Amino acid sequence: MSAEPARLILVDDHPLVRDGLRARLESVPHLRVIGEAGNGPDALALAADEANPPDLVLMDVGMAGMSGIELAARFHERFPDIRVLMLSMHDNVEYVTQAVRAGASGYVLKDSPATEIIQAIDAVLAGRTFFSAGVAARMIQARSMQTPLDRLTPRELEILDALAEGLSSKQIAQQHGLSVRTVETHRLNLKRKLDIDGQAELIKFAVEHRRR
């Protein structure tokens, strides 16, 4: 039996853009668009549907009201299991850096061919990162000037500080009003971003880089 198609939500404040994306993706058998939203609150409401949760959200960076950067951060905090892929007209490295810090796993330009957008979706669904070629070159240059902590979201930094204090996942969850599963997901993301294998190494890093 074949695997179920990956479930996607499209978020853009321009209906024509959403229509174009849906048309591109409907022909891909292993992908299924389960919803669309024109703003951040509607996107969060769609993601909260426990009966039909998305695997990935493809969202625009520059939206009226809540920006895509802020929305990505909200998703990363509330739904850390849902992957976020940014779609934008801007290849400015600052936008890309902010998106990554907010928790996005990829950043693709809107004028990219459909094959590249699908490739990006597949990569992010598989747990990898993906950036359009020009964006990737700028990110490599920017990352060479970053410290490891610069790659983490504000929530991930809070989790890292709590680990440095010797708190368990249950204690961290209680402290920050999160579920234990969400805290465990953040711990996995920390290890991935910091290229750390085990829990002991993560704790050691947290203690060495604690901010308070």
Uncertain residue segments: none
- The number of distinct structural domains comes to 2
Strand order of the largest sheet: 2-1-3-4-5-6
Secondary structure tally: strands: 6
Helix-strand sequence: EHEHEHEHEHEHHHHH
Structural class: alpha/beta
Q: Which geometry do the CA atoms define? A: globular
What is the name of the CATH superfamily of the largest domain?
A: Response regulator
The average pLDDT value, as a whole number, equals 86
* Count of discrete alpha- or pi-helical segments spanning 4 or more residues: 10
CATH topology of the largest domain: Rossmann fold
How would you sum up the major sheet?
Answer: 6 strands, parallel
What would you report as the Rg, rounded to the nearest angstrom?
17 Å
Named at the architecture level, the CATH assignment of the largest domain is 3-Layer(aba) Sandwich
Distance between the termini: 52 Å
- Strand percent estimate: 5-15%
Q: How helix-rich are the residues, as a percent range?
A: 40-55%
